[in-house]
Each structure stands twice: as structure tokens, then as C-alpha cells.
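For consistency, the fold was encoded as C-alpha cells, which produced the following:
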Amino acid sequence: MRRHRGWRTSGAAWVGAAAAAWLVAASCRTMQQPRTIPAGPAPQAAPQAAPEAGAVVVPTPAVRVGILVDVSRVSIGADTGVVVSGVDPGYRAAVSRATFVPASTGMRVLPRFRVQVASLAEQAGAQNVAVRVEETVQIRPTVQWNPQTSTHQVRVGAFVTRDEALRLATRLTRSGLPGAYVVEEGPPPAAGRIRLLETGEELTVATVIPSKPTDLLTADAAPYRGILEVRASEMGGLIVVNVVHTEDYLRGVVPNELSPLAFPAMEALKAQAVAARSYVLHHKGEFAARGYDICATQACQVYRGKSSEHEMTDRAVAQTHGVIATWRGQAINAYYTSTCGGFTEDGENVFDGESIPYLKGVACAPERTAWATLHTTAPPREVGSEPGLGRDLSLLVSLGVLDPALEAPRKLSGIPTDPEIRSWVARLHQALHRRECESTVNGALARRGTFAQYLVGSLCWEERGRRLLAPPDSDYLLEVEDRASLKGEEERLAAAVLIQEGVLSPFADNTLRPGAALTRGEAILLLARAAERAGPPALVAAEFAGMAAGQVTILRGEEPESFALDPAVRLFRSLDGVRAAASELSLAVGDRVNLVVADGRVIFLEAEQSRKGAAADRSSRYYRWEARLTPADLARGLGRYGDVGTVRDIVPRRIGVSGRVVELTVRGSAGEIVLKGLRIRAALGLRENLFVIERETDSRGAVERFVITGKGWGHGVGLCQVGAFGMAQSGSTFEQILQHYYTGIQLATAY
């Protein structure tokens, strides 16, 4: 659903077992440059002899994952030992465990970063682009044929660092040559050698397989499918590469990027699997100069091998086997972000580079087809002055505890009589389908303390107090100003039980007023809370699953249930616990509802709604956040981008389609600098670029603290992971989720 927010239109990894910290390891792809054309050739594995019978062979399509990079030592094992072979002619050794260290630093080879400007089928077109490039930057490019992509690739420059190459790519883009991005070239890092400690042998590249094909290899105790390769890095350390089937690689990626424990929605996990598969195929070969295709960290995709696999994500991978998202027949650069804050951003506003058609900002909300609007002929009305009284009265009337005549004006004024209270409590037990216990009390039931004792006794809750309330608990709960006014141990126990069960609460002055008279409205509030705590069978808590032909469909188990909606149904919305009557309710599939069903009809329905709005990712703990930063805090983070002296102000300079700050001016005593895209959140140390700024100033007007209120976590481009979970809960399929977040893509089978 789209919502208007001023100048624009807008719309899930580990969270702990109790939904903490996603979080996520749902990490965000922020390190690589967006692109729309295929990656260069994949790195070649070390040449090996034909495998012997029973040897481990990794089927295609395989991917080479750099699982350990620039380490000083690695130990590789398997249950029945391992076999080490090398490119060195004829070398083969069987050992119980293989331990490798660098044998020599060798020659340090620095990779070359270049800028690829175009990849064209026609050589003449590539030559024309090359001429334009040279005229623009006065550097002669090369035009080379890539047999893997069947295109002529135009590349320019040779740089020691990626940042230097990125500056040239940005310059070319701004000069009318869009599509430039950074590639890495260089000779294979085979200058150094490695030593196998168990035999003392020095090798150039070692391939390790388990002695028994059914065993798994471990690298520093972490298990991996496939085989492992060890080689020297140009930095003098070791690089360990896991050569594994792409589908097995995904089994070790998906649960780390979208936790099945925190986000157990199969369609969201399937969408994550397709995004991760598309990402690895798009970026395959990106680290060719270092001997692998893709890294195993948040700079690429988090991969932890066999140890992190989960049954649910295994099924998500299997059920989408080979499926990728494509644009013009090629795997897309499938960026994804943890929490987008209700709206994703255009890719070019976050990353330096060209506009990519499928990375466009979209509202993060369930599809419109997932929404339904419920209406009632019974208009909302105020009943009494107590907050929530109208809702509680309607609930008890719907449950048959109270007579509908009480909903008439002025019926709730005054003090209830003993017969009224006894009748209400008796009918409450009927609604609960429970036997009423005998409750003997002295005095008028409308006295607050007596009512509490009578209610606890009739509900048979006295045993809860005697057996489940320890003496310190009762003392703790009854730390009220007028505890001495409670008559006897039974009344004290009843008050403590009702406080613990959430039925009774102290007044604002921390009193219970047990000697005061109870009004009808107050009695109804207490009875409604007791009813909800006890759980009458007719009061159903479920997920809304749809509305059609006057039938409400809910889900409270494996099978959906449908009930007719009474035309005069009592409708309420609970906005983070604050209840209000409504004449109509808009519900999305997956919303939590509480309803009362009588004779097959829904006569009471309450929707649990959030003040965060309708965004599909609103369940994330990072959906809304606040940061308070002093000018000194900002100066420390800005150091890598320039020195402006004492920070005096930070001012958004350009806003993206989602409301994100995509250009920011930092003003200081020694000048100002302009930050763009990802550099903004990096410099300010924020979770996201979607934020607003307020300022706390001193008596002279100088800023003492910047108060930054923001939404989301990550770069905000592409698939919103928590949003995908929300969409899945609302009934969206993985295809719908992917086509929602990646504009105009097609789904295809890559293998």
C-alpha cells in the first residue's frame, strides 16, 4: 500500500531466539559496484590429473569461495583422513590431517584495478567507444575479446587501489559514458609457495579431498562440502578456497543472510535463495586475481559452510533450484538490504555509477491484493469516561457476559448491585466453559477489595496465589501506599494475584483504594481483563487470511477457517495496545486479529496494528532508531573524507526517491565537504541514509548535539529482507516478492 509522505510516495541474520539482533546477520551488499553485464572469466582451478575411482568430484556449476584469506596457518581434516595433491607433477600424499603454512613470501604481486566501460558484441562499436574514452580522459583504453561473454570489452587505466579506479569510473559516467565499473586483473598469485607440515613438502597450490568420498572436510574445525584448495597469497599468507557446487554454496549462505529461526516464512527464504544465487552468478570471477570467485564475508555474501545449514533454508534452495532473476537475459546484481524503513532507494543514489533499471526505489508494503477492508453498520460510540471501556464492554457483550442493554447511554453510571455482580461473574464462567468455585466474602461486592477477593475466589485462582506466589512476590507486588487498607490475608492474596495476572493495576498515586466503591465501568474493565487472561474459547487469536463474499478467513493452525462477517460486527483497532472503535478496518493478510465467533458469525473483531505504519519491514528492531552525536563525534568519523575543523552543521543537499539523504554538506570552521551515497552513513556512523536531523544548541546558537532520527539498516537498495518476510506473511509468493523489489526482472533457470 502506498502512503503519501509530503513530497514523495512511500510504502528482515540473526535475531536471537527471542527475536533479538538480526538480526540479521542479514547483511547488506555494500562493497561492490553495481553493474548490468556479466562478470569476466572465472578463475581457473589448479590443473590436476584425472580423478581416481571413488575420488571426490565437484559437479558443475561449481563456485570457488575464498573462505580464509591471508591467514598464517590452516589445518584441514576429515574423519578418515585426507589426500593432498599438488600441481607439482605427480605429488600425492595421504595424511590424517593436513596443516599448511606459507613456505616463503615470494614475490609480492599487486593486483591491477581497471575500469570497464563497455562490453559489446560488435568490434566496431567497441572501437568507437574506445575512441570516445581516450578523447574524454586522455588515457588509451584496450579492446579485448572475452570468449565467455562473446563480447568485445573496453577497459581503461591500471591502478593499485580500487578507489583510484572508482574515481575514473565516476568521471567517465559523468562525462556521458554510463556503465563504467571497476574490474580486477592481474597474474595468478602463484609466486609464493606453501608448506605441508606433516610431510615437509613445499607446493605451489594444494588440493585437499577426504580419503573417504562421503566424509566432509573441515578447515580449522569448520565443516565444508566439496573440496578445499590452499595457495599462497600475494600478501605472504594463505588463501583457502572451497570449491563447491553452487547449490551447496547457497545452503551455507541463505541461513546466514536471512535467519530461518527469526524469519520462518518459506516464500521469503526462497526469495533470498534466488537473490543469493543471482548475486553469485553475477559476481562470479570478481576475485579471479586471487584465485577464487567470491568472498565469504559481508563484502560479498556471508558463507559459513555446512555448520550453518538449516532444514528450512535447505528446502528453500532446493525448491528454487537453478532459478535466478534476470535482466535482458543476464543474472542481475541482486543487492539486498536488511531493513529498508518502508521504501527502497534508486541504486545510483547510493552507489557511484550508472542508473540500473531493476534497482529502483519501491514502497516496502504487501501487495494491494493482500489487503481487505471490513465495514460495520454499528457506528463507533463513546461509552463512559474510562479508557478502553467501550471496547471491553463490547467484548463482554459479544461473549454473553453482559446484556447489550448496558451499551445504552447512562446505563454504566452508578454502583453495581450484588445481584448484578454475581450474575456477571456467573455468565463469565459460562463463557469460559469452566466451573465456578464458591467464593465466600463479607460485605458489599461493590467494595473494591471485596470485589477482588470475590473474583479471585469464583475463578478458582486462590490456588494460584497459594502455590505460585512466593511470600516475597506478594510483598513486592503490593508495594502500594494503602496496603494497610487491605482487609486480611485473603484480600491481600487476591489483590496480589490480580496484579500479577495483569487484571488489576494501581492508580496513578500508587494506591489500590480497596475501601472505595467500584463503578459499573470499573467492574467491566476488571471482568474483561480477567476474561482475556482466562481465555474464553469463543475469543480466537489468529492471523487474518483474507476476505471474500462476506466471509472472513483466518489462520490459527495449519488449515484456514472461514466465518461469515456479521453486518453489525463490533470493530476495533488496537494501536500498540490503545483500543479504539472503528466503522471500517483495513487489514493485510498476516495481520494479527482477535475475534469472537457466535453461531458461525464473527460478531467482534479487533485488529492489532502498529504505530510504525503499514510497511512490510516494520517488525524489524531497526525499523526506527535515533542517534545523538556531538560535533566532535562527527569530526572523528569525517576524518577519512577531509578536515573541516570544528563541525558547525550538517545539511542535506539532495534527497532520493525514498526520502534518503543522498548528498550531504558538512560545514565546519575550516571549510565544508560534500558526502554522497554510502559515504554519508559511513562518515556519520549511522545505520542508514534515511533520516532527519534536529539540533540542540547552546545559548549562543552553536550546535551542541545533532539528534538524528532514522529508519532502516543497510544501504536500502534492492530486496528488503525483513520486508520480504512481511510480504510472505501477507501471502506473497517468492516470485511476487522478487518482482516487487527488482523492477522489471524476469525469473529464469540458469542450469
Notes: The longest strand covers residues 560-575. The chain has 18 helices and 36 strands.
